[in-house]
Amino acid sequence: MKKLLLLSLLSPFGLFAQPVKELILKETANSQSAYAQWYQWLHAHPELSREEKNTAAYLKKEVKEMGYTVTDSLGLQSFAAVLQNGKGPIILYRTDMDGLPVKEETGLSFASQAQGEKDGQPVSVMHACGHDIHMSTWLGIARLMARLRKHWSGTLILLAQSAEEIGQGARAILASPAFQRLPRADWQLAIHDHAGLPAGQAGFCDGYAMASVDMMNITIYGKGGHGAAPQQTIDPVLLSAQYITAIQSIVSRNLSSNDPAVITVGAVNGGTAGNIIPDKVELKLTIRSFSPETRQFIFSRLKTIGNNLAEAAGLPAEKWPDYNLLDMSIKPVYNDPALGEKLRTVLSREISDSSYTLVKPVMIGEDFGEYSQTPEKIPSYILWIGTVAPEKKGSAELPSLHTSRFAPDYSRTLPVAIRSVSTCLVQLFHSKR
Ligand SMILES: [Zn+2]
Ligand SMILES: [Zn+2]
């Protein structure tokens, strides 16, 4: 009897479980107006990557009032809000803060009118990737975890990251001495909103969930001349056409169909007139893959094919193509399967089996992957969170992420997302890595 009582006191899911569950439910149900206020302000005031000064100031003001200690100098506009709450695990939860150069066309009363500058040109700015959903969820979690501090112990590091869309924010944070001085997390979590799942439902994808992203510029050289005398030239336009076609065999013929990858040539620039064969053609590519081996293999095939085609065209080695990998590479997102299992168990037990679903990997990138690929290999997980109004589910009209009409159902998404993530956090604080 004594032993049983002791066990239930110690068990995270014993005596404490019921009141916490009810407190979380009550708090998220009663906080609708705060969630709406945060979301609408953040949605109306998007800022471009690296420029999120006002956004960071807004978030900092809120979390300081909740009792968090803010650490700055994490690179660009990034900062951390830390709640030290006794002994126990250390958990990092990250939001991103940047908007996109997209002109909003949602027709919402709080639609963004914001302007920014990209490559010296004025552009409209919009939270078209739902980072405003991420930030509002982050604030909701911050408030809930502070109010529930009697029910968990450990250290919560809430990370607010700059420049996710350009793949620079996570790397800058990891390289910053201020981040290195923060306690090392036992687990790392984040969410990304999903334009296909019902509002608030979590989507799990264990293992590689999002692809590594690389951007490469390739210059194909030739020997220019008169368009009427191609025999006196080496035509880089023809060579580019052969190259673009040939590299599509890398995915279709060199890689296993169980090893997904994408090679897209998104821009071809060369030449000025129909009767002039130019000296060169510039190609712009994006390359998506999951494993580091596949990524390296693709790079090597791109070179082998390019160099051999150039040689076959009669070009000397110094005129073989230039392959310029841009400094925009981000690592794949690897979701720790054991952590995924743990979170699903919590959600099933504390909320419901339908509070989550399983989803397939996608070829889009997210720089959250950088946090798990440090030498410490900290178990990390990014959850998808559905944003689609239940009545719209299945509609072919749903705008996707990064489009001007992306309008998540925030009022139904936020309370559920905040409840699910906070429930997972409280239970993780009661468990051992
Ligand atoms: Zn995005
Ligand atoms: Zn995003």
Structure characteristics:
single chain, 433 residues, alpha+beta, Aminopeptidase, Alpha-Beta Plaits, eight-stranded mixed beta sheet, 36% helix, 24% strand, elongated, disordered N terminus, binds zinc ion
Structure description:
The chain has 433 residues and is of the alpha+beta class. It has 2 domains: 12-210 and 332-429, Zn peptidases (Aminopeptidase, 3-Layer(aba) Sandwich); 212-325, Alpha-Beta Plaits (2-Layer Sandwich), CATH 3.30.70. It has 12 helices and 18 strands. The strands form 5 sheets. It has an 8-stranded mixed β-sheet, with helices on both faces. It has a 4-stranded antiparallel β-sheet with strand order 12-14-10-15, with helices on one face. A two-stranded antiparallel ribbon has the order 4-5. Strand 1 and strand 2 form a beta hairpin. The two termini are 29 Å apart. 44% of the residues are buried. Bound molecules: zinc ion (ZN) (2 copies). One zinc ion is lined by residues 129, 131, 164, 192.
